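2024-03-11 09:14:02 DEBUG pipeline.ingest accepted 1 chain
2024-03-11 09:14:02 DEBUG pipeline.ingest length=449
2024-03-11 09:14:03 DEBUG pipeline.predict start
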Amino acid sequence: MRPDLAAKYDLRVPRYTSYPTAPHFSAAVGADRYGQWLSELSPTVPLSLYLHIAYCAEMCWFCGCHTKITRQYAPVADYMDCLWREIDMVAEQLPQPMSASHVHFGGGSPTILTPDDFVATIDRLRRRFAIAKDAEIAVELDPRTADEQYVAAMARSGVTRASIGVQDFNPVVQKAINRIQPYEVTSQVIAWLRAYGVAEINMDLVYGLPHQSAESLVETIDLAVGFAPRRIALFGYAHVPWMKKHQRLIPEDALPDVPERWRQYDTAAARLVEHGYVQVGLDHFARADDEMAQALREKRLHRNFQGYTTDEASVLLGFGASGIGSLPQGYVANEGAIHTYKQVVRSGRLATTRGVAVSAEDILRRAIIERLMCDLALDVEAVCTRFDADPAQFDADLDSLAGMEADGLLVRRGRRVTITDEGRPLVRAACAAFDRYLRAGEARHSKAV
């Protein structure tokens, strides 16, 4: 990436895992509205379920997630009791027991659970929902807190995919972000996963961390690829110490500047492609025979709060503190403070405290942004045909992309847009041209790269 473009387009823009994006959720959508939306769902619509396990044993200083640190299990057990109650309450609002095709455990750290509580959670889901026989059940896994007994419980419960948090194998980087995770620890957990039949393995890496260089990142990638993961996510570290106070513990003078972040991204992406991975959208890489790569080729890739996904369910139900969901009527988000979340659930009320109803225009613009994020190409007329809408309403938005086109970041032919290879890392900046909400919330987003 040319240095002048790196400076020009290193803007604060949304990640577009939803539209409208989370800063535009409000208290106008709360528990009662969510309950109504649940009751209105078509019984035949497949669901996707997300469970937020809001605890970790130790704080990683780079973390941007909603989590709380505990060395004791009692707070976790108490939290899980409430999460199970929430599962019951949400299920009771549905018109009938509905089918779920995807289940995702995120955090925080799901591996902080005891094996028995993990199994109990899956059992609760199976009692309350019709979990499809071929459902993907995925768990975000911290190798530092996952032992063989836990991996065995995952496999016994039907888990099909594990996303391994690695970030970086370099000990200097690990120390700077307070995540000491020796290579051997990751290797042992992956060996257990494969021994117990959890074959679909993802790996999460991060660039832009303190003391990282493009060269050290390549060393991490080579080690990661040695485990033959099906997918690798390459995320950019978002340094937002005004939002996440623990990030103040990261030495800012050790963070790479903008040109170096670009170099890390470009070098790492090229290395993954050299290893045979297909680049998917902005930050995912998949083996050519993986379902995600196939979905990319067939233009049926989607994007939700977990990032790029092959999940085609139109309803995502989120559970736990800060759990977030998507329904045809709009988006909902749970109370983020764990103590308050537990109080609300124990009072017998749904935990939703904010959200946003979507208009017909929102749904149309969401489809436009999703295709651009997923395909790196957009045919405005084709999308508008699906929604019986007039494509001329987007001409001004398309015209606003002229600067990016002049800089070689995209090509426009009438109402068709194609992101170039150089423009790929800046696809979010192109999507922002179609975002009617951005101005009011732009300061709350992370930088483009």
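2024-03-11 09:14:41 DEBUG pipeline.report Residues 24 and 118 are 33 Å apart (CA to CA).
2024-03-11 09:14:41 DEBUG pipeline.predict end
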